[in-house]
Specification:
Layout: H1 2-18, H2 26-40, H3 50-57, E1 64-66, H4 68-73, E2 81-83
Helix pairs in contact: 1-2, 2-3
């Protein structure tokens, strides 16, 4: 679970750095990653609880496709599950 959390946070940071219209400082990127981790581990952030942090950071049309929930259930990971 922690490796998924770190991979997701790093993916988010990479997406932020890849955005051509704006650049973040390292401090801003770290804050964004830590806030997103607060969503995933249900701890929240300086923006509030996990739900308030998610509302502040995640776009309305956000979707995630993942097999990880199937692996947690012990089900075959052959079909991705869409969350969003």
């Amino acid at each position: 679970m922690k490796s998924t959390l770190v991979a997701t946070a790093l993916g988010l940071a990479a997406a932020v750095f890849a955005a051509p219209q704006a650049c973040l400082t390292q401090r801003q990127a770290n804050r964004l990653v830590n806030r997103f981790i607060g969503i995933l581990d249900h701890q929240g952030s300086d923006l509030g609880d996990a739900n308030a942090t998610a509302q502040a950071l995640i776009a309305d049309d956000y979707q995630e496709i993942s097999d990880s929930i199937l692996s947690l259930e012990g089900a075959p990971v052959s079909a991705a599950v869409l969350f969003g």
